[in-house]
UniProtKB/TrEMBL annotation:
<dbReference type="GO" id="GO:0016758">
    <property type="term" value="F:hexosyltransferase activity"/>
</dbReference>
<keyword id="KW-0328">Glycosyltransferase</keyword>
<dbReference type="Pfam" id="PF03808">
    <property type="entry name" value="Glyco_tran_WecG"/>
</dbReference>
<keyword id="KW-0808">Transferase</keyword>
<protein>
    <submittedName>
        <fullName>WecB/TagA/CpsF family glycosyltransferase</fullName>
    </submittedName>
</protein>
<dbReference type="InterPro" id="IPR004629">
    <property type="entry name" value="WecG_TagA_CpsF"/>
</dbReference>
Length: 252
């Protein structure tokens, strides 16, 4: 499969894929035994990358997929086109698990005990795969966790520590374990049933961010209210400066 076109939103090069082509790419990497990493960028990610050099550098070595209405609006403003699909990790990961050949999956992240709950539900939903809990996301001994990841020899690693911690962990260590690592934020909490999803009709209207704001107002207010305004302002500046011509870059 040829490398995907990317669109630079802020300082983040986001690959242009639909769900099927992204899944095929990842399955091709696993089949070829490649070590790769994937992240999902939304408006908050772009804001973080603007002020965090290490996070920007980590993302530059990953396949970055588009997550949510914010970066889709940025794509429309800067490139005159929407992304082919919303590839947010919470929907993309189960689609990948449903489509993938039988694989070994390692799960690392969330609060203590949550990964075990997530794996119990995932194993019931996707019995063709073999799931392994590596640990929670509050470890202090990187070396021990890396050793466990290396020992499992997973095809896919689901890493849920939140941005930018998960991407920085990958940047430090990912060459030391095999497979494709997906930096999936709060997906482990969703998979465990600990955090509710917005109803499907709200998700279809791209309103899941409003739903999350309504159930976690203190934690999400800064990200979604102040952060979204900051993101939109940055997009308008980038457009005005004509920093967003159609890219010739290629995704990693």
């Amino acid at each position: 499969m040829p490398p995907a076109e990317t669109r630079t939103i802020g300082d983040v090069a986001i690959a242009v894929h639909d769900r099927g082509s992204a899944i095929a790419l990842l399955e091709g990497w696993v089949g070829a035994g490649e070590r790769r990493a994937v992240s999902f960028a939304n408006a908050h990610s772009v804001n973080l990358a603007a002020r965090d050099r290490a996070f920007r550098a980590a993302l530059s070595d990953m396949l970055v997929l588009n997550d949510g209405i914010g970066v889709d609006l940025g794509s429309k403003l800067l490139y005159g086109a929407h992304f082919p699909a919303n590839l947010n990790g919470t929907d993309f990961v189960p689609a990948l698990l449903a489509a993938a050949r039988p694989r070994t999956i390692a799960v690392l992240g969330a609060a203590p005990g949550i990964a075990e709950q997530a794996v119990a539900r995932l194993a019931a939903a996707f019995p063709q795969h073999r799931f392994n809990v590596i640990g929670d996301g509050f470890f202090t001994d990187d070396a021990a966790i890396v050793d466990r990841l290396a020992a499992v020899q997973a095809d896919y690693v689901l890493l849920g520590m939140g941005q930018p911690l998960q991407e920085l962990f990958v940047a430090r260590h990912a060459r030391r374990w095999p497979g494709v690592t997906l930096c999936i934020g709060a997906y482990i909490d969703f998979a465990a049933g600990r955090v509710p999803r917005a109803p499907l009709w709200i998700r279809k209207l791209h309103g899941e961010w409003l739903f999350r704001l309504s159930i976690e107002p203190r934690r999400m207010a800064g990200r979604y209210l102040i952060g979204n305004a900051r993101f939109l302002f940055a997009m308008l500046i980038q457009r005005a400066k004509k920093k967003g011509p159609v890219a010739n870059h290629r995704a990693p």
